[in-house]
Design brief:
Blueprint: E1 7-17, E2 20-26, E3 40-44, H1 46-49, H2 77-85, H3 88-91, E4 96-99, E5 103-105, E6 110-112, E7 115-117, E8 125-131, H4 138-150, E9 154-159, E10 179-180, H5 191-194, E11 204-205, H6 217-225, H7 229-243, H8 249-264, E12 268-271, H9 279-299, E13 311-314, E14 326-328, E15 333-335, E16 343-346, H10 349-355, H11 359-370, E17 378-382, H12 399-408, E18 412-416, H13 442-447, H14 449-467, H15 469-473, E19 475-480, E20 484-492, E21 495-503, E22 508-513, E23 523-526, E24 531-534, E25 539-544, E26 549-553
Parallel strand pairs: 1-26, 3-4, 3-18, 4-9, 9-12, 12-13, 13-16, 16-17, 17-18
Antiparallel strand pairs: 1-2, 1-21, 5-8, 6-7, 10-11, 14-15, 19-20, 20-21, 22-25, 23-24, 23-26
Helix pairs in contact: 2-4, 8-9, 12-14
Amino acid sequence: MKKYLFVLLLIVSISCSPKKQDKILTINNAEKPFLWEGANIYFLLTDRFNNGDVSNDLNFNRIRVAANLRGFEGGDIKGITQKIEEGYFNNLGINAIWLTPIVEQIHGSVDEGTGVTFGYHGYWTKDWTSLDPNFGSEEALKNLVEVAHKNGIRIVLDAVINHTGPVTNIDPVWPEDWVRTGPQCDYQTYESTTACTLVKNLPDVKTESNSTVEIPMQLAEKWKNEGRYEQEMNELGEFFKRTGYPRLPKYYIIKWLTDYIAEFGIDGYRADTVKHMEENVWGEFKIECDYAFDYWKKNNPAKVLDSTNFYLVGEVYNYNISSGKFFDFGDKKVNYFENGFNSLINFEFKWNAAQLTSYEALFSKYDSILQNDLKGFGVLNYISSHDDSAPFDKERTKTFESATKLLLCPGTAQIYYGDESARSLTIEGTSGDANLRSNMNWNEIANRLQTKEILTHWQKLGKFRNNHLAVGAGIHKMISKNPYVFQRTYSNGDFKDAVVVGLDLNEGEKQLNVGNVFVEGTILIDAYSNTEVTVNKGMVNLNTPFSIALLEMKNQ
């Protein structure tokens, strides 16, 4: 057995009756509440994960040869649904899936320094009201949400409001009362981050505009050719009548994006390029998201998972958990948590995972901030992503350590597709961020022993994290320094969850202090080795060939 960074999870869910505080009762997972603050979110590129329908691989005459990994590869919504049905996500402990944007992309391509590129990634919108057929149909999306919900998995889509897709010879620029084509952002001030284009040839939606606009001519013509112009215009009329909003660019897009909630029942949005727009837009977006989610629930009572509110997590590029609730533009600080967001992506985690000298330093830092300054909100931690060229483990040499740090740290965990299987982040013949976006390595998962071992480690940690709210959302406290053992506890009403974790343990025989989590004589099962242990005077003795143990109450 190779020596990896190992973990001891001593886990138990307990509920104390108000009249019997000395009794310990097991709570079934069905009774366990769901919390975004401690969720396991799997982030994938829709086009790169799994091809479930080869008949939709080519659309809109996208036949121009693209640079390596810069064209459509065939992945689609049906492919994701297939993997849910196969149990891949449940085996990994995933309770939410975030997909890159699936709306219709520009039909043409752009010539960049890296070569020909299509909108395979989903961030180059042509029409917010349609799904791109390369990703799938509305029926496929409806089925995805239903299958996911039946498996206890929530669906998070990706919302792009900041910009349209690039201009090509077949994708004209939107009218100038809708978008600006310059200047390009220099990120030195609030204004030079918001009232500008991210890059050359990426028209910026005038979300700050107070001037009413009409539907762009090219969009109206498109809808007419597709036979749905009257329907779209009638729906817009109803939206603006209900809300009282003026017909500004931002409100059109808000309407189009929230339609996916009202119609399909998606559970959340990841908001793209958040800091490049006025923060109040996101607060308005969240209001309409909540309205649409309530509308869907009222019309689909049998399909409602629970009372959890709609989730909105933001990509405020370079936001760090150490900043607390504020992001500093230099000349202005903005609190995005006061503008609709439940959570923000934490760009600091990968650095903390690499630079902090101990697990305790990492875990206690996150516990202190989340239980105080960010109480009631959350951060989304990650080790790699689709556009971060400096991930925690670019060469995939620390995959076991990656799982240990990411899945045991307080906060929400984002598993980027292939983190759990060491999918390569350096692809020969590929340049730039396309290296981060290769096809999922299903062949290695099926046939390579080392990949299977890595995946098994992620699966065990992921399932325990999913089963126990204390891991991601609980209060952290160190029990002993050497061996390093800590506890996490979570309590909400009658529901209580307690976890004891030990790290860097000896292989073979080991004795650990489990604090006051378990009463004397409690029988635990090590799910890693299928070994029983008994609590004796606050201690457990475990002798296995592994340096990791996952223990929980017997018969839980």
